Amino acid sequence: MAPALTAGRGGDQILELGGPDTYDRSIPAIVPGGKIAQIGVLTGFASQLQRLTQFIVQHQIHPVIDALFPFEEAPKAYAQLASS
Question: Which secondary-structure segment (H or E) carries 62?
Fold first, then answer.
């Protein structure tokens, strides 16, 4: 994102569709707490999962998991997801 467009602040939301070749430009262009929505991968998948995993470990990010379901209970899991 051109700094002039946001007065050097960065973007609150970025729609990322390039993939590995453009993702490295989206990271510094987003404000802290902003959101990057990956809506496409035009340049391939490369090693993004590995980099994401390293980032999660480095920054000690722990996902919040509400419930676990065995595969056999997939319909129940989808029903819970749909109920928000």
Answer: none
